[in-house]
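If you are new to this repository, start here. Below is one unmodified record pulled from the training split, so you can see the exact layout before writing a loader.
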Amino acid sequence: MSAPIVQFSDVRKTYEIGPVTVNALRGVSFDIQAGDYVSIMGPSGCGKSTLLNLLGCLDRPSSGRYFLGGEDVSGLEDDALSTVRGARLGFIFQSYNLIQQLTVVENIEVPLYYQGWPEGQSRGRAQELAVKVGLSERLQHKPFELSGGQQQRVAIARALVNDPLIILADEPTGNLDSAAGIEILKIFAELNRQGKTLIMVTHDQNVAEHSSRTIRLRDGQVESDVRREA
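And here is the target side for that same chain:
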């Protein structure tokens, strides 16, 4: 088996809030292989958001090691973490986080703009991905002209545009009705079949069952780690 694409080794995260010390993660360890489709679950306050922030290089662990694609990113400074985020990670949020003034294609292009892609190349890449997620008729529409499900498709295309090592999804169906949510999960399943590595935070067991592995957190620790057929 090849080396894991994600390795967490005894990762701890502590916050100091005035005189109070909050132990958000208390020694979390797991590996994720390329091509895994993982759900992160657990009750409120269990550490899901903290874990997602660390996986997404939005924060650093207080102790322990995080290897992403074989590189130890645990102690990188902010600029280096930002470079890693731009080159290796794709993010999908519950609230879509689209720029309302931009069209579908322009929203998808945004990460490539920050990486300095030539406009012609980035436009072609964005259009290709818009078609891939079923938005070929909506290229020049703006977010307020789209349904929630269509906006989430834009967000998925944007997350894919830099061909990331892993895609991180935070409650990706949380703002959608059940039909639109199922369509988004079908896209995730197809991406996974194509070899993409997905890590999804969800509170919904029905959503988690679309993944092939569920890691449950409780009180900042891994309570269970179960693989199954997606």
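Two things worth knowing about this chain: The beta strands are 6-17, 20-32, 37-41, 63-68, 71-72, 89-93, 166-170, 197-201, 213-218, 221-227. The two ends are 21 Å apart (CA to CA).
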